[in-house]
Amino acid sequence: MPISFAYAAIALKTLHVLAVVLWVGGMVFAHFFLRPAVAALEPPQRVALMHDVLGRFFAAVLVAVVVVLASGLSLIGIAHAGGGHMPWPWTVMTVLGVVMVAIFGHIRFALYPRLRRAVAARDWPAGGAALAKIRTWVGVNLALGVTILVVVGFV
If DSSP codes are grouped into helix, strand and coil, which group holds residue 82? Predict the structure, then answer.
């Protein structure tokens, strides 16, 4: 692999890993630390706070998703350009990563707007229902993210 490809690969892999850390780490934080802590709040405060936090988090994840996809595809291209092939863990990572992106799209563009509308209308039961659906899909994405880390990290 030419030296310029090697440096590009290092930079791309660093960006890729940092974006994944933000995404998966943020899901761990929200699911296991933030959600239980805000459970003690009354529904208006809890739903409004989660709406604000998730809005910020989803904006960051949207950037992370773009970085993950762009860097991942670039790394695959560099591997092929260098005469290599895509190892099977990369295939698993790619397939599950695309599923994660699709799930995030559903959370961000279908479920989160329901939460936003409920908060605007001060409909706390609807907001709680939207948060429950978001929590479920974040749990699925978190499981997929951990699966990817295990497959890629230990193989």
Answer: coil
Show the beta-strand stretches assigned E in 27-131.
Answer: none
Residues 6+ apart with CB under 8 A from 35: 50, 135
Which SS3 state, helix, strand or coil, does residue 122 take?
coil
pLDDT tens, 131-149? 999 999 999 999 999 999 9
Asked whether the beta carbons of 19 and 71 are under 8 A apart, the reply is yes
Residue of 66, 53, 42 whose CA lies nearest to 138: 53
Both structure tokens of 121: 């209308």
Confidence at 72, pLDDT banded by 50, 70, 90: very high
